[in-house]
Design a protein that fits this description.
eight-stranded mixed beta sheet, 40% helix, alpha+beta, 24% strand
């Protein structure tokens, strides 16, 4: 943390993270080089003069319509837990994942509610929460961790108005140095082109980076094309399984080097 930090960690630090955190894989972003070619996008906005007039005509239309239809306001964690499940479930399904369950929803946001640096912003259509953002804000930066919206209310452009509102607030009104929207996903079948188009449309620039992975020593012998083939066969049977999709994306990256 934060995702936009591109300083390469010390190898000893990575080994400690894997061992002490009992993790199978450590992942981090690096600046690109001949040795570390670009394989991901990092989305950031650093424009202190961010404004609607600088955005594409379609974005301007969407924001103006949303301003007439929706009410944007900060949310408490209780607001999210009480009203946010439909938006969460619809979004996870749209990106092809099967984890949009009430259990996964409550587990995810009850943890975030315990962090003082984590905030939520929502767009309401009458008494329905059309969409909400999950954001980490620290010092002079903020990072959007997720944007969730209801299928039935997408016509009112809640995602567009939320992005415009928070970018304006953080960059213009609060004078923060940057806002990040994380990195592109390694998972196959996640509408990467559509997500890329949306993030750049609302004002984020896409910076090419190298996404590095370090495996636990016990897992390294299994990083081969046979394992990759096996995981893809399992993925064909359970295409919405998030763990399998992450594993397939990881193996695709690592076996590409072999």
């Amino acid at each position: 943390m934060p995702t936009f930090c591109l300083d390469s960690p010390d190898p000893g630090e990575v080994r400690r993270v894997i061992k002490q955190g009992r993790a199978g894989v450590a992942s981090y972003l690096m600046k690109t080089s001949a040795e570390h070619p670009p394989n991901a996008w990092l989305y950031i906005c650093e424009d202190p003069g961010y404004s609607l007039e600088k955005l594409a005509p379609s974005m301007r239309r969407n924001v103006r319509r949303a301003l007439k239809e929706l009410r944007v306001a900060p949310l408490t964690a209780e607001d999210v837990i009480q009203h946010g499940l439909p938006a969460f479930s619809d979004t996870r399904r749209r990106v092809g994942l099967a984890d949009g369950t009430e259990d996964a929803f409550r587990k995810r946001f009850s943890v975030r509610a315990q962090c003082r640096a984590h905030v939520f912003v929502g767009a309401w259509k009458d008494n329905l929460l059309a969409a909400f953002l999950s954001i980490t804000e620290v010092d002079d930066w903020a990072e959007i961790e997720g944007c969730f919206s209801r299928d039935a209310l997408l016509e009112f452009r809640p995602n567009d108005i939320l992005m415009y509102t928070v970018l304006s607030q953080y960059l213009v009104h609060e004078g923060r140095r940057l806002v990040s929207y994380g990195a592109s996903s390694i998972q196959p079948g996640t509408s990467a082109e559509g997500l890329h188009a949306f993030k750049t449309k609302v004002g984020f620039s896409a910076q090419p980076v190298h996404r590095a992975f370090e495996l636990h020593p016990l897992l390294r012998p299994f990083t081969n094309r046979l394992t990759f083939w096996t995981v893809n066969r399992l993925l064909a049977l359970r295409p919405m399984n998030r763990s399998l999709r992450k594993t397939a994306g990881l193996l695709a990256t690592l076996t590409d080097k072999q």
